[in-house]
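Hello,

I think I submitted the hexanoyl-coenzyme A job twice by accident. Can you confirm which output corresponds to this input? Input:
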Amino acid sequence: PRPNGRRHAAPARGGQAGSSAPSMGRLRERDARLRAQVLAGRREAVERQHGLGKRTARERLDLLLDEGSFLEIEMYRRHRSHGLKMGENRPHTDGVVAGSGTIFGRRVFVYAQDFTVFGGSLGEAHAAKIHKVMDLALENGAPLIGLNDSGGARIQEGVMSLDGYGGIFHRNVRASGVIPQISVILGPCAGGAAYSPALTDFTFMVRGSAQMYLTGPDVVEAVSGRRVTHAELGGADVHGELTGVATFVHDDEETCLEEVRYLVSLLPANNLEPAPAAAPRGAAGDERPRLAEIVPVEPNKPYDMRLVVEELVDDGEFIELHENWAPNVICALARLDGEVVGVVANQPMVLAGVLDADAAQKAARFVRFCDAFGIPLVTLVDVPGFLPGIEQEHAGVIRHGAKLLYAYCEATVPRVQVILRKAYGGAYIVMDSRSIGCDLSLAWPTNEIAVMGAEGAVNVLFRRELAAAADPEGLRAELVAEYSEQLMHPYYAAERGLVDDVIDPVRTRAAVARGLEMLRRKRASTPQRKHGNTPL
Ligand code: HXC
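Support: Only one job matched these inputs. Its output is below.
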């Protein structure tokens, strides 16, 4: 081998047969190409991106992944189109940076669309890179995270762009329930592009910059005459509050990507591996006196169920899905005694905690996620029933409520139900009752489990007697007392095996932890079939 100095003084040109060291010319070319792919976006485009408070694809990956962990694939790939002046503009990366890295030391696969190159639009080469990284994620059993910031199908590449999207959707569905899939929307996500996030498990959006819609404001105006802004049509809050398309909404990219990291820290790598556990906390011995203070004894007094969740889980820490959509039900991931659990809870602070069409859809999807990935379910029940009304009936509450029922009936993960105060009617059945398969049902002594509340029941059962009575109010009070004494306590259900134990509220965390410990090795299966026909 030649000494270094000599090699620098007289670089060889081209590959020499028999030489293992690359020539200097080739190394320089490599360096130049590397720079070109790192700086694929024009300077003005990068400045514009920064001016909008947005980061470039690589800056985002730096925030998302552990330092120095990113391994990039196909960085030199670029399109081979010629029409519409495309032949003159062939930047490396083709507008998407793809590869793999780690989050808290655990492997993930990622792609980040780069708006500074062709507006992040998706053509044939761009799609091929995403397909590749999706295939790697599935084959390696690791979560897939897509950072979306794109003008959609690359117009110049015609149907090949649409074909590229189809390939993403197809892979999203194949990977569903096998690896966790997370979509992060950090800019436009228009047209059919919005269907990939919709097929994944979690969608993050950033206020101000993220938009999702099938047809943009111009098309809406042309068709309907109505002028709307991007944000009004499909901004983060629209999807975080109205449509439920966004699972999480954040004010800025930094917080958003930090939260993606936190979420990943709670998720299993795939459906065959357990969620990452932390050290046990000795929860089985815990007493939480605050629980008795948070929940009022009066059945109709509101309280914030999130405070109950805080008392139950480790460090009071949980990540809430769809915080502002259907807030009458809470869906959260947390750790309990070190193990990851999914919490579904009625929220008496909103609409008295009733279930409605949106709440049922929200909880159903969450239950199915937890079941697919082996995450035990803890269901906290305090529910007066389904929301009555013409709007709900016409909104299809039967169809949507059936989704939640179906999801619970199908779930084979460990399932613990805690009935805090009341559980009436169909909502009692749906909120993971014994009849639909919960493994362990715990009830507080104060609670009421019945077809309906005492007043309503007496009105139905004794309508004629009350109408004919000399003192209807006196009679009503008497009948209400009788009904309550006979039916409105947990022991009626406990005697019949529908409640396993009536627990002291302050020992709820301990009782749930012990129950989950008992169920840790649970194995249950569903009948062989192609798939069930979930009401959609
Ligand atoms: C090619 C595109 C592009 C696209 C943007 N660009 N979208 N190039 N195909 N779809 C380019 C622009 O020409 C521009 O290039 C650069 O990206 C930045 O775009 P701007 O328009 O300057 O940015 P901005 O003003 O921020 O507007 C962003 C935008 C707008 C709202 C996304 O670009 C837009 O409306 N684009 C078209 C969106 C669209 O209709 N896409 C097709 C959707 S249908 P220069 O060279 O000037 O920097 C679809 C079907 C998928 O996606 C179906 C799957 C089944």
